[in-house]
Design brief:
- There is one protein chain.
- This protein has 221 residues and is mainly α.
- The protein is 59% helix and 0% strand.
- It is elongated, with a radius of gyration of 43 Å.
- The termini are far apart.
Length: 221
């Protein structure tokens, strides 16, 4: 958070408004100063948590006070906060996150540690990146060591491409398995209906032949 705000302060030439180098009580008659001061306070109110803002900011605070008080909440108990962040940083794994989300989380933890005075250099950030990769892109980590001029942004760009490639490979494998499964499990062709054996009937000759003559009577004794 502090890194982002610091960049904005430098971009708009507002560093002297928040670093305490100028006593705002001496600038009360300067309408331009008070206007910018009020604009900064409103921006803080809209940017940080309203609950946090209302808990630490008092009526009449200038931009410097509004900036210092919330920062104090994050820098107080520095040792405990450092221990918590280090535990999360050194135990960070990709799991089911995308490459972008995983790398963003590592970078955020690194920035938060830097904000409380614990320097995380690029070498340490890179050494923590590869062990936390999931199995889909784990094989790609070996290629990262061969990269010339290694840097965190370069690693992210390479891993993003590798992640995309692996997704395409999975799609092809799934498609091939689906086609193979359909071919193997297809229903056999329907057999033609069996010819029925005609029921026995009276021979045609029975109707065409003349009737047999009656048998002669038996002789009388």
């Amino acid at each position: 958070m502090e890194t982002y705000f610091s960049v904005v302060f430098r971009e708009y030439n507002l560093v002297d408004r928040v670093d305490g180098s100028v006593d705002s009580s001496d600038m009360k008659e300067d309408s331009e100063w008070t206007t910018i001061d009020a604009t900064l306070i409103r921006w803080f109110f809209l940017t940080i948590s309203k609950h946090l803002f209302l808990n630490v900011v008092s009526d009449g605070d200038d931009a410097h006070a509004v900036w210092v008080k919330p920062n104090g909440l994050f820098t107080d108990n520095r040792l405990q906060r450092c221990a918590f962040l280090q535990q999360e940083f050194f135990g960070c794994h990709q799991d089911d996150q995308s490459i972008d989300d995983y790398c963003r989380r590592l970078k955020t933890l690194s920035d938060e540690l830097c904000d409380i005075g614990t320097k995380i250099d690029d070498d340490l950030l890179l050494s923590m990146l590869t062990p936390g990769l999931n199995e889909d892109v784990d094989n790609a980590s070996a290629n990262l060591t061969l990269m010339s001029g290694p840097s965190f942004p370069k690693f992210i760009a390479y891993l993003r491409l590798e992640e995309h490639r692996m997704k395409q490979v999975k799609k092809r494998v799934q498609h091939t398995a689906l086609v193979a499964g359909t071919s193997c499990g297809a229903a056999p062709p329907t057999a033609p209906p069996a010819l029925r054996t005609p029921a026995p009937s009276t021979p045609l000759e029975f109707y065409l032949l003349p009737p047999a003559p009656p048998a002669p009577p038996a002789p009388q004794p």
